[in-house]
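Hi, here's the filled form for the chain we discussed.

Project: internal
Contact: R.S.
Residues: 119
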Amino acid sequence: MKKIFLAEDDQTMVTLLKTLLKIEGFEVESIDLAKGDLLTSLREIIPPILLLDVNLPGQNGMDIVREMRKDERFNDTSVVMASGMSLKDECLASGADDFLLKPYMPDDLIDILKKHTQS
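And the returned structure, exactly as it came back:
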């Protein structure tokens, strides 16, 4: 299984996602958003799969994905975006591979992640 990286500012959600994904056999790491610029952190780790919240403190997930897609180091990174607002078209147009509308069912998340971990 590939490692899933989480860029989510809601710590309760991070805890729930880590627990759920680990039960499903995924390796999970949360990105510390307090460190500042998310893009800088992502360039240091080049995640295979990123679960990215659209609304982050001081940053917009769609801007992050647009910048990632300009950088060939992220060519193999799958980005799944999530938001409480219906922004699927905008997120996909920004470069996301998939979108989940919050609140989503755990099975929907697992199915999407499994689709992106098939090699």
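Let me know if anything looks off before we file it.
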